[in-house]
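COMPLEX REQUEST
Ligand: magnesium ion
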Amino acid sequence: MSKVGVVGLQWGDEGKGKVIDLFSGEVDAIARAQGGNNAGHTVIVEGKEYRFHLIPSGILYPHTKCYIGGGTVVDPASLLFEIKGLEKLGVVCANRLFLSGYAHVVMPYHREIDRSEEKAKEGFSVGTTGKGIGPCYADKVNRLGIRLADLGCKDRLRGKLERVRIGRGIELDVDKVAEEYSGYGAELASFIAPVEEKLFEACRGGKKILFEGAQGALLDVTFGTYPFVTSSCTLAGGISPGLGIGPARIDQVVGVAKAYTTRVGNGPFPTELTEDEMRLFPDHTAAREIGVTTGRKRRLGWLDAFLLRHTMMLNGADSIALMKLDVLDDLEEIPICIGYKRRGKMVSHFPISVEDFDDLQPVYETLEGWKAPTSGIRLYDDLPSKAKKYIRYIEQYLAGPALLISVGPQRHQTIWMDRLFEGNR
Ligand code: GDP
Ligand code: IMO
Ligand code: MG
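STATUS: Structure written out below.
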């Protein structure tokens, strides 16, 4: 089992960054297949907090190679800022970070369109991160995109921008943008590499590779709570087309889920807490539930196991990394959603249309809280019995084993249930 996908099973921010960091010590490479700097992945090492947007979190280990695939969208100024920020902290990116020339470039007009479209959708806006991700992917499928490979030649770039100006019908200072973006192209030139071939060779050579998912299953552009979704495939199935590797290369999929549920941005959220219930939870800062990319407070809710069963299926997840158990430490009782009712009848499938969520009532199984701190515990056997009951209930309901339980943001605040790679516990 040497090539493992790590994907979010909820609406993003499940703790994928921490999980990638936990496994990165044991692997040769980490690759991102989709999304852009809408993602925000947090890693804490020896008390120091690192926030990643596009660069794979595994870059912190000096022996790893990191890849950004053709299915991603790259905002060059933001990426350069991330590279320089890491280099200032002593993390070397040269000869370790490789960008696919196939990746599309987020242009300044994408950010403007993102913000103005959101403004225009008053009352039904998505609540995007405002990073231009949706318009960039839209230009890609409209065949008006600019790719990293285009930034190397100013004349070629100017020609493509002229086509965008006409095709999109927007005002665009072609010369100015061509000048600025070919400058970024020059700065990024040493990072652009045949990522697809490098990954092919790595796979053939039996290297251990992690595929770092961004966002979460219910933000998937096809199977998420459409239209309140992002614009890429966030499922494990998106790894292959996003990196140009064959689907059979992926040996195993780890689904990352919080022990409760959160969402940033708009859209349905059946188990969202009421104002009264919010008071039972630690505040947003203590629970680390403030968005990394936009600084927004995340919406909070009870664990939705019905949703997780659906997203485990969509991802073909083999196991679960259950995160943030410690956040529930003080609760008297903990409801778990095990299905939904509509007009008194149980719903048989996870709803497709957002309108179908309007008259849904979550059905809860309520378990007793353990009312004891867990963040200092390292062994499953040392957990309070009611916490074990909570974990076992989830595993049984999902018919999937927990690979690890996370009880704090730091690397060592982890309870290993099983091994993924030799020696990672
Ligand atoms: P990602 O986007 O999936 O990588 O998740 P984020 O980094 O956006 O959000 C997860 C937040 O929870 C970060 O602030 C992490 O440091 C924090 N975190 C991760 N695991 C745990 C945990 O087990 N307990 C607590 N309290 N915080 C955690
Ligand atoms: P990570 O990788 C949580 C959400 C936005 C919005 C919707 C569309 O950190 O889990 P976009 O800017 O992508 O067009 O916004 O998707 N969103 C995320 N929510 N975590 C993320 O990434 C997200 N990336 C996008 O809040 O609701
Ligand atoms: Mg995040």
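REMARKS: The longest strand covers residues 333-342. Residues 8, 11-13, 38-41, 126-129, 131, 133-134, 214-216, 219, 230-231, 264-265 surround 6-O-phosphoryl inosine monophosphate (ligand 2) (CB under 6 Å).
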